[in-house]
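User: I'm preparing a small set of examples for a lab meeting where we compare how different chains pack in three dimensions. I only have the primary sequence for this one, and I'd like the structure in token form so I can line it up with the others. Please keep the answer compact; I'll paste it straight into my notes.
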Amino acid sequence: MHAHAVVLSLATASVEASPIPDPLWAYRAYLSAVARHEFADVIASMTETCAQQLLDLRDTPDFWTLFALWCDSQREPVVVTCCTIENDAATIDVRSRHTVGRVTLQLVDGAWRIDSELHQPLRRSAAR
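Assistant: Understood. Below is the structure token output for the 128-residue chain.
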């Protein structure tokens, strides 16, 4: 099990390849593709099942407008609070200013791919 405390910024213009497969590098590349609105790179960073969900929506009305809005909504930097790797699966827990999330990745043909991503708003406790 590996634990990392890393801040990932979406402002990164390019991502250099890691010398060894690392789910954090894969997640950073995914975030970079999202920030650049690069549909093909977003799809390439996903597992086949995850990518197919997005591909199935591609021909729906307003898809490209909604895709751009989704990309723009992902611009807030995230802090990786935990990264665990077990065999060919990895889980990355993240936190931003307004959300907490969990990203799962699968090792597919020697490369880490996003398999699922879930973000929820932070719950703020009521002021006393």
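A couple of notes for your slides: The longest helix spans residues 23-35. The CA atoms of residues 23 and 112 lie 6 Å apart.

User: Perfect, thanks.
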